[in-house]
Structures are given as structure tokens and as C-alpha cells.
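Risk register update: the risk that structure generation would not scale has been downgraded. Supporting records follow, first protein first.
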Amino acid sequence: MEQDSDALIRATLETSGHRDNADIGRRLDRWLQGRWGKGASVLEVGLPGSSGASSEVFFVRIANAPFAAGEAVTDAVIRLAPSYAVYPVVDLGLQFRCMRAASLHSPAPVPKVFAYEADAEALGAPFILMQRGQGRGGTGLAVLRTRRLD
């Protein structure tokens, strides 16, 4: 029974797979060219095994990214603003500024944030472009589990 409820919760939280990866790649290429000029190009767009409780997440490989000087290929993450609000306030600009401050002024393992785009025209929603780290990310599932106390 618990496995069935876990599957239902995961299906409810799943936000990836609603957009076309090739379209995201083409749109990101155009955005990169417009923001930084010629040179950078998207090599690959993929989906994580699972995503967060509200944001769509894409893994991207970018060649010659000007924000990652010295790296021929940069592994990055695009986190799109949620299509529907799970939290009362979703402010990607504030999240971007907080992540940047934490990465610069804290020993916390925070990914580098490369850019924030508020204009939904670029990829279909505002987004943050950030460094991709290796490891396992947390999911919203653990937060939603409750246990009856009888």
C-alpha cells in the first residue's frame, strides 16, 4: 500500500517531460547568442531521472560558454519557473541572487549560477541557468510523507 501511495505522490510531483528537448535546445541556443554573442552552442539537452515538486529541470551541455571561461564544454542545469504555484511566492530572481551570494560568501556547496532570465519568451518560462553538480539531489517526496500517530 505504501508503495502505491509513493508512486501516486511521485506522479503528482513529476514536472519533467512536458516540453520538447530539441525545442528547448534551439531556444537556448538563440538566447545564448542574443545574450553573449556568437560562440556558445548547445550540444545536448536531457532530463533528470526525476524533478522537483514544481520546477521543470533540464540538463544541458554547452560548448564554449562565455560564463565558464577555460572550459570547452560546460555541464549546466536549466530550472524553469513552475507552471503552477506549489509555494505561495516563487521569485526566481531572488533565488538567483541568494544562490549567487551564498556561492560567493559561504562555504556551503552551492552551484554557481550563470544567469537568470525573467522573460518567458526565451524558453517558455523564466529560468535560472546554473552549474550542474554531481551526486543525488533531494526530492519533494520525503517532505510530503507523513505518519499517523495513533
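Supporting record for the second protein:
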Amino acid sequence: MTGISQERLERKRMGGLSRPLTASAKRFAPREAMAALLCGVSREPILSLTGRIPAGCSIEVLEKTYGACPNTPPLPLEQLSLSFGVSNYEEYVRLHVRQGRLALDLGARAPNYLLLTLARHRLADAAEGCSEDACGWICLDAFSHDPSMLASRVNIDVFRLRRQLASRGVADAERIVERRPRTRQLRIGTGRISITVL
């Protein structure tokens, strides 16, 4: 049997797949296989595949693809609670987002420090009795003493925070940091905040 004929035979055995079995392919007995694609927010299955693996064939996952879950409603920022975990020297700021039983770990990333600074300012204003509309606003110039909080860096951090929340299903993620362009003021977009020293 020629190489071409062998290749065609292998394709037929594999149900018409465009690539034949390679010499390194392992041989397995027929078995049941199941795969499920889970929503990154609710962890509910949104796609599942079941079937039998033919004898002599194996399945390899070559890459991962993440997409939006059509059955999961967007998360409004006003319903979320932000929980900060801060190390003693503040070199480590971890952020969790919660809504009821749903909890998202957003990790410890550099932009979290900006959000922590804004959160502290909003909590301080609230403790002094400021109105909700007035709470938390701080001028960008107040950060000028800190090289890590220059205006250009703040803009990058704001962009990354918004992008991260949007990727986790927050509908109005742009509101995580609110701005007043004329006065160069900004604040964290929610008062549902807790800060814990780790």
C-alpha cells in the first residue's frame, strides 16, 4: 500500500479529518470523552461535547479560546463590592470583586494601588460626612509627589482597570474610575469598599 493510500485510509478512520495520524500518536481503546466550556463569571456550562474516541485516535487541545457567555447578564458596578487585601508595606495589593455568592479574584496587579488610594480617599470623605456626590474626589495634582503616580501612569492604570473589569463581565466598567476633566479630579466609582491588611 502506497503512502498516499495509507494517508487516505487514516483520514477515513478519523472521519475525514484533514491531517492523518502521526507516528507519535498513541493508541487508545475506545472510551467516553466529555468536554465543557464554562462561563468565566458564573462557571455554568455554556457548551458541552460528548462522544466516543475511536480506537487508535487521541484528542489534543492545542489552544484555549475564551469568549463571552451569552446567558450571563452583565454585572452593574453599583451592585459590586470591592475588597482590597494590602500587605504591610503596600507592595502587594490584591483585589476581589463580589456580588452575592459570586466572587472574582482580580489578582495583585500594579493598577490596584491607584484604586486603593482612591478607595481610601472615598472612605475618609464618607467618614467625615460628605455627601455621596462629593465623596472621594481628588485632584490628579495631589499625586505629583509620588513618581509612580504621574499623570501618564495614572491614565495607563485607569485604562487597564477598566479593561480588566470589562473582560470579567462588568457592564459599566468605565465607571470604576470617574473623572472630572476640567478640574483634573478623579475618584473610585463605588462606595462599597473594604480594606484589609494582610
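The chain has three helices and nine strands. On this basis the risk owner (M.S.) recommends closing the item.
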